[in-house]
């Protein structure tokens, strides 16, 4: 098993942020009057999380026998729920929203995002159910020996729907989120060609192990092609958004909105580009670096802007996805836009800890330590082959990996967490054999 330790995922996250921050041709300005306090809180959050990880040395896993019948039934059940959500989501996208083939995809996306809670019952149903298709795929990967090959392919087609949907709607985050969850599941699986592993190190520090097959040309070349394809896709997304907004001076607009000062050499190269395509390539590369680099600066601005440091909503901001269901039963709660008024700037990433600080303030220090303990405990159990902990760690792993840029434990991603929790309950309590006696019919 080649699961990556959570502390190494955090290190990788930091290195990616640092590389983007050091290479982006810009300086972030207007950080506020409490820069050092903000930096201090960010450091403390991460240190306490690491201490939480280090506080758990070993765990015991209670063996759980899962029959072949139970495995097959669970995958079929989750698949059925997921397929219903996927089909409804496709109907929404094609017929109701018309987003897949919209003339102006950027404008259509912005209009849909502005309609908070306006997707109706169909939207709620699809949002809650379609993640089960991906969870069914994760279980099918773990239990591949018990799966019919044709059925496995069918599960994979529907389980990968979030990625296909994201490509068609030009949304990048969900591709990364689902892709990394599936990768963690693959690394934790007992698939035979993953038996041999190669250690990846930085100097003498062991980062993680990769299945040796991934280092073979027939595997790593397609992997590199896919990565380049994702970068090209990201550039296409930025190009389309630039064309949609049709800014007269993109540099000035971005400097204003990002609170940044671009390097003079970079601005010269952009403004003296031979054609629009060359200009957009430069701006797309800048945008990709900004995507990873800006979160810490925005976190500092957020903390400097907030009026108090002991929290505002105590869970409602980060877990608003759950709280908004109170509206269905007639309980009046603020909209997310109302909650977001305390932020310095909406629609920016403030690392994992920004939304956390809005909710809990400095009281969140305790939760960061406990989160570290829970993450390490889940990792150690997953490493011993516990299916339920592999599912949970797949979610936690991607959250930790992205923690220096974005909070993945918010919004629609929580529906995947909900699907995982319900699946864990089913695995624990679904009977291994369902026997119906004739006298009960």
TrEMBL record:
<feature type="transmembrane region" description="Helical">
    <location>
        <begin position="390"/>
        <end position="408"/>
    </location>
</feature>
<keyword id="KW-1133">Transmembrane helix</keyword>
<keyword id="KW-0812">Transmembrane</keyword>
<feature type="transmembrane region" description="Helical">
    <location>
        <begin position="414"/>
        <end position="431"/>
    </location>
</feature>
<feature type="transmembrane region" description="Helical">
    <location>
        <begin position="352"/>
        <end position="370"/>
    </location>
</feature>
<protein>
    <recommendedName>
        <fullName>Oligosaccharide repeat unit polymerase</fullName>
    </recommendedName>
</protein>
<feature type="transmembrane region" description="Helical">
    <location>
        <begin position="120"/>
        <end position="143"/>
    </location>
</feature>
<feature type="transmembrane region" description="Helical">
    <location>
        <begin position="174"/>
        <end position="194"/>
    </location>
</feature>
<feature type="transmembrane region" description="Helical">
    <location>
        <begin position="7"/>
        <end position="29"/>
    </location>
</feature>
<feature type="transmembrane region" description="Helical">
    <location>
        <begin position="150"/>
        <end position="168"/>
    </location>
</feature>
<keyword id="KW-0472">Membrane</keyword>
<feature type="transmembrane region" description="Helical">
    <location>
        <begin position="73"/>
        <end position="91"/>
    </location>
</feature>
<feature type="transmembrane region" description="Helical">
    <location>
        <begin position="35"/>
        <end position="53"/>
    </location>
</feature>
């Amino acid at each position: 098993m080649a699961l990556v330790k959570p502390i190494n995922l955090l290190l990788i996250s930091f290195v990616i942020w640092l590389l983007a921050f050091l290479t982006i041709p810009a300086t972030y300005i207007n950080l506020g009057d409490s820069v050092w306090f903000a930096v201090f809180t960010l450091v403390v959050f991460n240190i306490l999380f690491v201490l939480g990880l280090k506080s758990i040395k070993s765990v015991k896993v209670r063996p759980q026998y899962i029959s072949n019948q139970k495995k097959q039934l669970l995958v079929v059940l989750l698949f059925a729920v997921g397929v219903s959500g996927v089909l409804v989501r496709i109907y929404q996208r094609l017929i109701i929203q018309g987003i897949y083939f919209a003339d102006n995809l950027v404008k259509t996306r912005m209009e849909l995002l502005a309609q908070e809670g306006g997707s109706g019952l169909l939207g709620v149903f699809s949002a809650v159910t379609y993640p089960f298709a991906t969870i069914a795929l994760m279980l099918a990967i773990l239990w591949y020996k018990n799966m019919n090959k044709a059925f496995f392919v069918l599960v994979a087609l529907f389980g990968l729907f979030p990625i296909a949907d994201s490509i068609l709607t030009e949304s990048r985050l969900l591709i990364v989120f689902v892709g990394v969850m599936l990768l963690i599941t693959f690394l934790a699986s007992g698939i035979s060609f993953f038996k041999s592993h190669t250690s990846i190190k930085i100097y003498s520090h062991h980062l993680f192990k990769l299945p040796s097959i991934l280092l073979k040309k027939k595997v790593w070349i397609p992997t590199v092609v896919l990565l380049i394809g994702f970068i090209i896709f990201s550039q296409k997304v930025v190009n389309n958004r630039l064309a949609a907004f049709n800014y007269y001076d993109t540099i000035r607009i971005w400097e204003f909105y990002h609170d940044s000062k671009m390097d003079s050499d970079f601005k010269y190269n952009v403004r003296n580009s031979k054609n629009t395509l060359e200009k957009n390539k430069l701006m797309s590369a800048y945008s990709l670096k900004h995507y990873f680099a800006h979160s810490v600066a925005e976190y500092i601005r957020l903390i400097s802007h907030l009026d108090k440091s002991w929290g505002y909503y105590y869970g409602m901001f980060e877990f608003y996805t759950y709280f908004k269901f109170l509206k269905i039963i007639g309980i009046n709660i603020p909209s997310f836009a109302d909650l977001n008024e305390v932020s310095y700037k909406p629609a920016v990433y403030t690392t994992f800890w920004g939304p956390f600080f809005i909710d809990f303030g400095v009281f969140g220090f305790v939760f960061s330590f406990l989160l570290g303990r829970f993450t390490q405990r889940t990792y150690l159990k997953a490493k011993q082959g516990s299916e339920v902990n592999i599912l949970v760690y797949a979610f936690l792993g991607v959250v930790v990996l992205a923690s220096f840029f974005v909070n993945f434990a918010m919004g629609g991603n929580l529906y995947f967490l909900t699907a995982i929790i319900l699946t864990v309950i089913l695995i624990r309590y679904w009977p291994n054999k369902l026997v119906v006696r004739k006298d009960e019919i």
